[in-house]
Design a protein that fits this description.
- This protein starts with 26 loop residues before the first helix and ends with a helix.
- It has 718 residues and is mainly α.
- The strands form three sheets. It has a five-stranded antiparallel β-sheet, sandwiched between helices. A three-stranded mixed β-sheet has the order 2-3-6.
- The protein is 54% helix and 5% strand.
């Protein structure tokens, strides 16, 4: 046998590159690798960049400077799923940086990211695509693009993802998107409520919190609240409040419920199932300021509706609000004061709140917090509007304002606001009504009242009968056919009258006319039919089986509903009608003021020579009217010989109804006058500041005397 020859090994093909393991220590190399045609190289480069970017913002900025994002953007549409997944991961982690987000918007990446939300994509792709979108959705322009490019539907679908990170990112993104009203309507149409309610049962608190925050935003829309109720969303929310283990979610759950309370239908549903009692019971024992504040805010929003105010009153929400005023948290005090202001729309609530609330609110005027004092002033103003009994807060405030230590700008503002809602009392106490203080029907001038003396209502004054004190001049230009029980918020008591012009021209004395007036004196006579409240709204009484208020409170309520209602002044009505026809057509305010002054003087005895003023026997005529009426209360239209204060009041009454701005000032010795502001004519067309004038109604009716001149001072004092 021949010797075997050893066969030589075959050499490798010359066109094959041996695998090369590269160890790179710079991110720049990894960025260069993003241009490789090899899928494995691309996947590994993306993975390395993801790990590098995860270490901090500085690294993200480094990659931004190296142009990594432009290369990665191209890989979002790569055919290899691993390359595509790893590229999305880099975008998800880098998008938290502000500068990165700016470039992503320029690259218009949202459409590519939305395409990654398809059901067939890997769950990791869903996680980082939603993460990137959530980071970018803080910007309005991105919100618009996500909406326009159809991103809402897949985001809502992913709320049902089995992966908690996908759920968290998706709901966070939706929360940011629904800040825009257009997206709120869109997600409602896409039936977002059921999956959001489903997230409330998540084991992850952050997901529950984001779901509640999203529900709070979208439930601002009434249509969404209806859908929420249809999906038993209210039960979900109440269950959260009843669960002490979910106390970290109570504030947000309460915020959603607060929105729901704005609808009468929804509130009735909660009431029928005992939900309101549960809610108030929960609130009464809670000491968390955030919960208390949100609860008060919810009541404020809900109380804008008359029917809701009625339901809240039946559930005795006033007790809760009064308790909140005693907390140590300023934000809670502000919210409680605002809720009290809102509940004042219900006349029974106003009575209940006034008894205990007014002293508490007055105390808040000494707070060091400006917001607390401002909210307290507003609440005091609302509590005392058209409420003579509540208006006795006035004595407390006057006492405070007389003290140099206790007085502050808020106590002064409170007194001013209260008086602005009770112009009869303001004029009596302060002797001044500004041009913004519009005299309405029910106003009466009973003269100046001394500090510490009680200001009597028109009803109380009517019971005094005829005395030797000065006449009380009242204003009522409302015809009988239009007289109805007034809205509780009106600035003055409503006025009613007898059935004929003859009877209406005189006031029936309290003794002689008691039986005759019994049919229309008291507002309480209409309680069985419900009180008229503004534009067709009605505030009805609480049913007997539910009502539970103390006799003292009931007495207060009955007093509120029973004002003395004097008859209308048809003569004054004619004055207003005639003056409007002849004076309103005049072209300038100056002409209107002069004409009105002459009109008023003509109706009250004409011009009086200054030397013969002592012979102008106006007192005798007033006494005759009082004797005729057997009462000190005199309708201004009956006065045919009026002096300074009668004429000034009539001028103000008619001017207010004609839109002519003027003030009313009381002086000494039966003096009163009107002040008007007029702009001087300028030949050069320059806009000059207005000048203030005193209007002469006695000596030279229509003469306008510049404020501060000797002639004006003489008219006011001599």
């Amino acid at each position: 046998m021949g010797k075997k020859v050893k066969k030589e090994a075959e050499s490798p093909p010359k066109d094959v590159f041996d695998p090369l393991l590269i160890e790179s220590k710079t991110p720049a190399t990894a960025v260069l690798m993003l241009s490789s045609p090899e899928n494995e190289v691309l996947a590994k480069a993306c993975d390395a960049l993801y790990k590098f970017a995860s270490k901090g913002d500085e690294n993200k900025l480094t990659l931004l400077g190296l142009g990594a994002l432009e290369h990665l953007y191209k890989l979002l549409s790569h055919e290899d799923p691993i390359v595509r997944r790893n590229a999305v991961m880099v975008f998800g982690i880098m998008a938290s940086n502000h500068d990165v987000k700016k470039l992503l918007r320029e690259l218009d990446i949202t459409n590519s990211l939305i395409s990654q939300l398809a059901p067939e994509e890997d769950v990791v792709v869903h996680e980082f695509a939603t993460l990137c979108l959530a980071h970018m959705a803080v910007e309005y322009t991105t919100k618009v693009k996500i909406f326009e490019q159809g991103g809402l539907e897949p985001l809502i679908r992913l709320l049902g993802s089995p992966d908690p990170d996908v759920k968290k990112n998706s709901v966070e993104c939706l929360y940011l998107l629904v800040q825009d009203f257009q997206n709120r309507a869109a997600v409602r149409e896409l039936n977002v409520i059921p999956p959001l309610l489903g997230l409330l049962e998540s084991e992850y608190p952050v997901i529950q919190l984001l779901a509640l925050q999203t529900l709070e935003v979208i439930s601002k829309d009434r249509e969404t609240r209806i859908i929420l109720g249809e999906n038993k969303g209210l039960d979900f929310l109440l269950n959260i409040l009843e669960n002490n283990e979910l106390s970290d979610l109570h504030i947000e759950a309460l915020a959603v419920l607060g929105n729901c309370l704005e609808d009468v239908h929804t509130l009735q549903l909660i009431q029928l199932t005992g939900g309101i009692k549960k809610l108030l019971s929960f609130l009464e024992i809670s000491t968390v300021p955030g919960i208390q504040k949100n609860a008060a805010k919810a009541i404020t929003k809900a109380a804008f509706d008359a029917e809701i105010r009625k339901i809240l009153h039946w559930e005795e929400v006033e007790k809760f609000l009064l308790n909140l005023l005693e907390t140590n948290n300023d934000e809670v005090k502000v919210a409680a004061s605002q809720a009290i202001s809102a509940m004042c729309g219900n006349i029974d609530s106003k009575s209940v709140l006034g008894l205990q609330g007014i002293p508490q609110l007055v105390q808040l005027l000494s707070s060091n917090n400006e917001e607390v004092k401002e909210a307290a002033v507003t609440a005091l103003s609302n509590l005392t509007t058209a409420s003579p009994r509540n208006a006795s807060a006035l004595d407390i405030l006057e006492e405070i304002n007389l003290s140099t230590k206790r007085k502050n700008k808020f106590s002064e503002a409170a007194l001013e606001k209260l008086l602005d809602n009770n112009l009869s009392q303001k004029y009596s106490r302060m002797g001044y009504l500004s041009s913004s203080n519009i005299i309405t029907n029910g106003f009466y001038d009973c003269g100046q009242i001394k500090h510490g003396k009680k200001f009597l209502s028109l009803e109380e004054l009517s019971k005094q009968g005829l005395t030797d004190r000065r006449a009380i001049i009242f204003i009522n230009a409302k015809p009988q056919e239009n007289v109805v029980v007034e809205k509780a918020q009106d600035a003055s008591p409503s006025l009613s009258g007898t059935s004929s012009r003859e009877k209406a021209s005189s006031v029936v004395s309290p003794t002689e006319g008691k039986q005759e007036l019994s049919g229309h004196i008291s507002k309480s006579s209409t309680r069985g039919k419900g009180l008229r409240k503004g534009k067709g709204e009605k505030e009805e009484e609480k049913p007997k089986e539910v009502i539970n208020i103390t006799p003292q409170v009931q007495e207060e309520i009955n007093v509120e509903h029973s004002h003395w209602l004097p008859p209308p002044d048809f003569i004054l009505m004619d004055y207003i009608k005639d003056a409007s026809k002849t004076i309103l057509p005049l072209t300038t305010t100056r002409e209107q003021v002069v004409a009105l002054a002459q009109f008023v003087a003509d109706k009250m005895g004409g011009p009086v020579e200054i030397e013969k003023l002592h012979n102008f026997s106006w007192e005798l005529q007033i006494s005759e009217i009082e004797f005729e009426l057997k009462c000190n209360i005199v309708p201004i239209g009956k006065i045919k010989r009026g002096t300074f204060y009668h004429r000034a009041l009539l001028f103000k009454v008619i001017a207010d109804r004609m839109g002519i701005g003027c003030s009313l000032v009381r002086g000494k010795y039966n003096r009163a006058w009107n002040e008007v502001k007029l702009v001087e004519d300028s030949p050069k067309g320059l806009l000059l500041p207005p000048q203030e004038y005193v209007v002469d109604l006695m000596f030279e009716p229509g003469c306008l005397m510049k404020q501060g001149t000797a002639k004006a001072d003489q008219y006011k004092r001599i």
